[in-house]
Amino acid sequence: MLRRFEGVLFSSDKQMVIFDIGSAYTKYGYANEATPRGIIRTEVMCSETKQLRRIYDYKDTEDLYQLLVEFLHCLFFRYVVVTPKDARILVLESFLTPTQFRETLAKVLFRHFEIGSLMLLSVHLATISTLGTNTALVLDVGYKEATLIPIYEGIPILKGWQALPLGGEAVHEYLMKSLKETAPNVNITEKLVEDIKVRTCFVTTLDRSVKFGTEETPTPPPAVVYPGVKNIIIPGEIREKAYEVLWERDNDNLSIPTMILDAILKCPIEIRRPLAENIILIGGTTMAKGFISRLKSELLALLKSNLYSDKLKIQVFKFHTAPSKPNYTAWLGGAIFGTVDLPLRCLTKENYLKSNRVPDWTSLVDNQKEDSVACEI
Prior knowledge:
Layout: E1 2-5, E2 8-11, E3 17-21, E4 25-30, E5 38-41, E6 43-45, E7 52-54, H1 61-80, E8 88-93, H2 99-112, E9 117-122, H3 123-128, E10 136-141, E11 146-152, E12 155-156, E13 162-164, H4 168-182, H5 190-200, H6 206-209, E14 224-226, E15 232-234, H7 236-241, H8 256-265, H9 272-276, E16 279-282, H10 291-303, H11 329-337, E17 347-348, H12 349-355
Parallel strand pairs: 3-8, 8-9, 10-16
Antiparallel strand pairs: 1-2, 3-4, 4-5, 6-7, 9-17, 10-11, 11-12, 11-13, 14-15
Helix pairs in contact: 1-2, 4-5, 8-10
């Protein structure tokens, strides 16, 4: 089948379209490609209020349905430029994705856009396909949360999963509060904060961090001037402390480094070393300058502490370097999966219209043995 767009013919064959709909950004493109066609914000202009709204900030199911209709319409016809009817779609999802969201997304895709088939793929499982290994500890630090799943021989160890509300949003909140105090006459928006974070902030070392608030407080790095309509002076202290929220432990003594160690402890003892030596970081927050170095230092320091010295006998942590930027490594994994014909993993339009639901591994309805016999009472 051929379609015409601005005088050019494009072939709309069975090539699968890959969507990674994140809390802050959405990556889109086609299977068998090394990079996504583009990365856009996961937001849409509200037709009523004429204001930008994030897709995940929905009020109820009806509100979510309308937001997804408008957002996916923009994706299909403006960015991906493909006819959605009978198209094959792969959507990457976190294991913490609410059932309400995935059910509504499937309803929009099948009933409104009439796609041909849908594959829902775990972000963490898709990630390891980019490495050529079946065993890895996958840590995803995105915008709203940090999630971690140990995977051994291609099987997720759900007993060891970890999650904390730590990510880019927590960093933005710190910067927003600090910048409003230092530049009260400037309109500090979310986009401005994000740009300042990327351009000027960094993750400091553990040695400097432990001295904050003590008599040995180190001299802060130099301030920088962020150019704009009004120049904003970013103090060195703010630049250095922006990411400290990711390493501070909460009331339960949890932080991003403890997530990794706790996950390893919950796994069988014989696979702990392989997991510690196959860590992969994904998500835009992990791209911050100094993040990996600080994480290594935190892990080694925790191993010597009273919390883990008697429980975990690991001395080395090794990190994989993915063949892509961490913010779209999961999308690349989806693009690899999309090149393989996996009919059992795909939900077709015919099957969805019959059942009107998406199979869910958390539901007993979709995980009963074929030879099971119903008991009559």
